[in-house]
Amino acid sequence: MIEVSCNDRLGKKVKVKCLPSDSVGDFKKVLGLQIGTDASKIVLKKGYMIYKDHITLEDYEIHDGSNLELYYA
């Protein structure tokens, strides 16, 4: 299990526990349940790169303690 932090820059910072083999889409579903937002409205970014739903966290090299930027579509 890894723990990834998501910050929406509006004061909401959420820590999500997941597996490195989970896809970004699965991660968004868990995150959506924690913050009460539909997963289809969540956009995850790091810098200028937008994470695609079908690629795993491991492939994006997201590890324990990583920080992601949370945006709403």
TrEMBL record:
A Pfam family found in this protein is: ubiquitin
Q: From what superkingdom does this record's organism come? A: Eukaryota
Instruction: Respond yes or no to whether keyword rRNA-binding is given for this record.
Output: no
Report keywords, A-Z: Ubl conjugation pathway
Gene3D superfamilies to which the protein is assigned, alphabetical? Phosphatidylinositol 3-kinase Catalytic Subunit, Chain A, domain 1
Q: Which SUPFAM superfamilies match?
A: Ubiquitin-like
Query: Which stretches make up the Ubiquitin-like domain?
Result: 2-73
Q: Which InterPro entries match?
A: Hub1/Ubl5, Ubiquitin-like_dom, Ubiquitin-like_domsf
Instruction: State whether keyword Signal applies.
Output: no
The identity of this protein, by name, is: Ubiquitin-like modifier HUB1
Source species: Eeniella nana
